[in-house]
């Protein structure tokens, strides 16, 4: 096991930021911690890394107890936190070299690692730039290069794509997948469900410091009753139509607003057919019609009654 957290409790005064949180991250996983702002993701990461004291619980990394002075464990971890932490007076190259040098004293070996990290995040054209001259996205990439240059076994990234342009965002996500393919275990926190779905092999959903679900994206979606959301653009749908539609088999809910009929169906094969048949039989004319599978937001909504994003 790469990370094992057992019954972690963290309070800030009266606020319980982590409420008996337990989690395990296995070797080779890209483990996603997904939750809305304030759900406790950063607090969990800071406790796991012993950067923050906690009230209760046990944390092991690489099978050993984690502690603030566990330098042998920390050497094998790459940390990329939300706030970019680089030196303004050092260039891109010098920054990466500095952080890599904390773990790799040999200059020759370090040169290769720094070059490879620069290449990895695509900062070749910017190696002599000072951080102040970099855009937000490039700065994030520099932050990542500083965290991964020493080739850690475990890489922890806390919301690395917040306020990042789409090009840098894709580069970052592709990079994480590549690091994982090359052998690193990854922990990734985000409140963007699309990112977590794209790169994570297992996802834990947090709300108010508590785990509300844990599994692969397929397992999480299988936990809820919603199987399919069908949207129909129509200008003529009466209250009677809506009441009749709701009586059909496997319909979880139906709403008609602003010329859009939204039908939520349970799991099953023939939901779209059922809705189409109904529209035809009742002489309802319609424009676009499309069906969507549940998202992780639907999982969050069904379990907590709230949207993942405010
Ligand atoms: N130093 C602190 N003192 C008091 N309360 C705090 C402190 N840090 C965080 N909190 C509170 O603890 C809860 C969890 O915050 P945390 O930053 O861990 O959440 P998060 O999921 O990482 O959110 P975000 O995505 O906004 O960073 C929130 O209610 C937050 O307001």
Automatic annotation (TrEMBL):
Source domain of life: Bacteria
SMART domains: AAA
Gene3D superfamilies assigned: P-loop containing nucleotide triphosphate hydrolases (3.40.50.300)
Domain ABC transporter, first and last residues per copy: 3-233
A Pfam family assignment: ABC_tran
Keywords for this protein: ATP-binding, Nucleotide-binding, Transport
Molecular functions (GO terms): ATP binding
Sections of the chain in a coiled coil: none
The protein, known as: ABC transporter ATP-binding protein
Source organism (scientific name): Caproiciproducens faecalis
